Amino acid sequence: MTVLLAITGWDIAPWEAEARAALGERTIAVHGRDKYDPAAIEIALVWKQPAGALAGLANLKAVLCLGAGVDHILADPLLPPVPIARTVDPDLTMRMTEWVVLQVLAHHRRQRLYLDQQAKRVWASPPQEAASAVRVGLLGLGELGRDAAEVLARLGFRVAGWARTARTVAGIEVFHGAAGLAPFLARTDILVALMPLTAETRGILNYGLFAGLARDGVLGAPILINAGRGGLQIEADILAALDDGTLGAATLDVFETEPLPAASPLWGHSKVTITPHVAADSGPREIMALVVRQIARIEAGLPPEHLVDPKRGY
Ligand code: NDP
Ligand code: OXD
After folding, report:
1. Annotation marks residue 176 as catalytic
2. What pTM value is reported for the model?
3. How far is CA 30 from the centre of its chain?
4. Could you say which DSSP state residue 216 is in?
């Protein structure tokens, strides 16, 4: 079996090294670098493959996405009709939960205020609210949203989530579907977006949605945190909402254009915290352990786990 690595946007070297170490006898070919027989490729390991990179692979059995989000794969008009599986991995989930908890606590515990005070050598201690006074809402309650929600609930926050479909999660108030969105927003002080980018979710983080967030919270004004995809957000609306007080602050890991252009006003905005799409960087070693299990399933004639529904878009 030949396994194709089709990766852009990440340093290929550690992925190739881990693939060679983990995949034993199988031949590894790197798209855009190696010469290979397209008919020999049976599995493609992919992150932001160049459009058309997977076309013409007559014996391709599956595409394994090396990250959790697959919007970039599904955007390829020349994608062959084979099963696509995404990464669901405890290491990736824990990294995301760490990032979400870090950012929620930074707002709840007013970290930016203390950094500003330190810069001015000011010793002042404004009142701190209890976590139980703060309502966090997870927009997206899948693998990542659910884990973050459960950890935040254990820290004492009042946590709710919004998903496409109904379910019950102990300790979390769950809203779903179009009808559930307004009541979910109306009880949310800190909104954490952990949704996939699909035709339905593109641009969902807009001024109208921000205006629906709770306005009676202890933080003064609602806060937006987005680690889903940049395409979920309308950046002009975030800026307008921050400037007129509809939002109190925003923490963004993902952007409409990545890398975030140097000219973006988000960089210098006093109410914006930026991380460069690192909320849950996949670790090649951990992800390759999942790849090995997936390839073993495919070789045994079983479908890979964590299949994507291309019609649904995630
Ligand atoms: P999942 O597919 O497990 O969960 C997606 C959640 O979004 C589900 O709860 C789903 O609802 C909900 N959802 C999807 N569409 C809609 C809709 N139209 N209306 C309401 N809810 C909707 O994905 P993960 O939790 O694993 O990952 C989420 C996203 O996080 C990824 O797609 C990726 O874009 C992003 N990500 C970002 C990273 C980073 O470093 N910044 C790292 C990893 C992932 P339901 O449960 O009903 O299906
Ligand atoms: C992912 C990501 O989807 O890193 O895994 O954004």
Report:
1. no
2. 0.98
3. 26
4. S
